[in-house]
Structure formats: C-alpha cells, structure tokens
C-alpha cells in the first residue's frame, strides 16, 4: 500500500486542505493514479473518507513529519572508502532536525555557508508505533513502511567543523517522498541517484554493512521511537556535488522517485 500526504490544488472545494491518502493505480501510467483521502493519521487501520482525487490534481508533500530523523553514516563500505573513512565498529548515528524535511518537487536551498553541497541517495524507514529496545525478531512489528530520502550534506562544513549538525541539518537538507510503501522487503533493493538525468549513484540495500533490522535494534536501544519517526539507512558510493539549478532525483526499487531542484537560498 502506498501512503501519501498531500494538499489539494486550487479549483477544488477542498483546496488547501492537507490529508493522508492511499494511492492506487499503475505507477507506470501516472494518469491512472488516484488518491483516496484518509481520516486522520494512517497508523493502525486506515479509514477512507470517500473523498478521491486524481494524483495530478493534488500536490504531494513530505509523506511524514517526523519528530526526529535518525541517520546512519558509513553503512556502505564503498561509500566509507570513497571519502577515506573506515567502516565504524558500531553504527555511526546522527540527527537531522524536523525542520530539514521537504517533500517531492520542493526546492533544496543551497546554504550560503557552504560551497560543496552533495547528494546522498538513501532508503528511509518510517516507524509505525512507539517502541524502545526492539528485539531483532520483532522489528517488523514497528515498521510502518519505507520511502526515498536524500541526505543532503554540506561536505566542506562536515569536514571543517568535525561534527555534523550544521552540515547535515540545515533547512531543506532532508527531502523525503514521494510516498510511503508499506509492503516492501528492504533486503535487496536498487538505490540510485541522478543529477540532471545523469546516473551518479547505483547501489543495492544488500550492500549495507548493517541491515534495516539491525539499525532499528541499535537506535531503539538508546531512545524511544515514535510513530512517524524516520531512520535513514546510509548511502551507496558515488556521492558528489550539487549546483544551483540542478535537478536531483533519488529512486528506490519498489517505491518510486523523489525529485528536487537546487536553488539559491533567498
């Protein structure tokens, strides 16, 4: 099931309203896609309202507004190596604030304090229930679904400051979308990134040093995860620079494509 968060475009009696919805139709035929609005949040048993829109008549928003985004660094050995780093002995985690989140087609605003902003295509996990100290054999019970993410990074700031809060937490540095896929096996999915249509990253989740389940166990040992929280699982090799005017697209097999344009921060 594909769960989206959307607003209704002008011209509809419901214009401007924001809802969750279930997307149905053939993704290969965009004109066939429709959104069935849900009452309230999508956790538990979704409750359709009966309101339906064509996908082209709504604006997709970030599929979730998490209380926190817990990201994992250097979880692909080839990516760690390309930046001259070793794979850490334990998962390397950091936070991106909720204010970093944007949705599909929203713009990544190039921060004025950096001259080397880079893309990082990732699989994102969306948590579906409050949990802590999750056992490995019960991880599936706390996962709501999966979406695409771009862990946009000011690489020069990351290297210069030695900690990652500003480098990875600036406004618009966490595009998520286009929707959440709830029925997906994350073990071996293609993760790709293109910039202006040119392939830059091509990896598979089977190359992750630590699996989705292992990451959830590790993170939940330390903190309570809430419904809607997001875990970013790391990026494959091939990261590189973005420039103002670029169109960057992250695709994850079985989910879809998240596209964003880079603009100058106004």
Automatic annotation (TrEMBL):
Q: Which residues form the Rv2993c-like N-terminal domain?
A: 1-63
Q: Name one GO molecular function term.
A: hydrolase activity
Give the InterPro entries listed for this entry.
Fumarylacetoacetase-like_C, Fumarylacetoacetase_C_sf, Rv2993c-like_N
Q: Which SUPFAM superfamilies match?
A: FAH
Q: Which UniProt keywords apply?
A: Hydrolase, Metal-binding
| Location of the Fumarylacetoacetase-like C-terminal domain | 68-262
By its UniProt entry, which PANTHER family does this protein fall under?
ACYLPYRUVASE, ACYLPYRUVASE FAHD1, MITOCHONDRIAL
Which named protein is this? Fumarylacetoacetate hydrolase family protein
Q: Which organism is it from?
A: Kitasatospora saccharophila
């Amino acid at each position: 099931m594909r769960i989206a968060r959307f607003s209704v475009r002008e011209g509809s009696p419901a214009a401007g309203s924001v809802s969750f919805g279930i997307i149905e139709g053939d993704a290969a035929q965009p004109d066939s896609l429709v959104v069935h609005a849900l009452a309230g949040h999508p956790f538990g048993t979704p409750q359709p309202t009966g309101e339906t829109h064509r996908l082209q008549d709504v604006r997709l928003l970030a599929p979730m507004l998490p209380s926190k985004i817990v990201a994992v660094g250097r979880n692909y050995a080839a990516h760690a190596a390309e930046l001259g780093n070793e794979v850490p002995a334990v998962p390397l985690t950091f936070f991106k604030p909720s204010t970093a989140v944007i949705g599909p087609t929203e713009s990544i605003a190039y921060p004025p304090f950096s001259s080397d902003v880079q893309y990082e295509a990732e699989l994102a996990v969306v948590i579906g229930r409050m949990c802590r100290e999750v056992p490995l054999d019960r991880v599936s019970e706390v996962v709501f679904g999966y979406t695409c993410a771009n862990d946009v990074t000011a690489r020069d700031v990351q290297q210069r400051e030695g900690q990652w809060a500003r480098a990875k937490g600036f406004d618009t540095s966490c595009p998520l979308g286009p929707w959440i896929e709830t029925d997906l096996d994350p073990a071996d999915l293609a993760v790709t990134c293109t910039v202006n249509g040119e392939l830059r990253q091509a990896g598979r989740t089977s190359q992750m040093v630590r699996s989705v389940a292992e990451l959830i166990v590790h993170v939940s040992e330390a903190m309570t995860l809430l419904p809607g929280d997001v875990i970013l699982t790391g990026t494959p090799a091939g990261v590189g620079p973005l420039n103002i005017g670029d169109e960057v697209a992250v695709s994850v097999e079985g989910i879809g494509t998240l596209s964003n344009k880079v603009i100058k921060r106004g």
